[in-house]
User: Fold TetR family transcriptional regulator from Sphingobacterium detergens.
Amino acid sequence: MNKNDIKNTNLLRKSIVDTRSLLLTRKIRQLKVSDLISALNLSRSKFFRFFGNMNIILELVISEELERSYDLIACNLLAGLDNPHLIAELNLLRAIYLRKNSILYNYYKGILSLPKRYATLIQALAAKEQQLYINILSKQKNYLANDYSQIKLLPLFQNRAINQESLA
Assistant:
């Protein structure tokens, strides 16, 4: 790693930490680019040059939160490798851990009211969570489903599922 790579890595790490702190006090819908620029202590041009748009840094932060929550879920499921109620238990643990995480709670609570400019963020995070969910299932010895693509995650707070049509 050269000096510039180290500098960029440090900037990215600091930006994720600072954005996480900001998301603990604000909802995504309330965030503006100027809020992020101020919290990250970056110039507007450097912010856009480094991240491209606000969705990128939000995706990084929320993805890390999802990974942490799914690590906790996986740890709780590993004890019951022969669990006949695996999907039900996994969905219950998902609801518990995602609600306990204030960043994820606020994200999922307001997901349907986000403006269309967040569509790529919503799609990326839905794909990330689907991947994490399937990774847990694929490690369970008693889960024999061959086609994981048919698994649809239930919405946590809304009465309807999030799908591609609702984002168009």
Notes: The domain at 3-167 is CATH 1.10.357.10 (Tetracycline Repressor; domain 2).
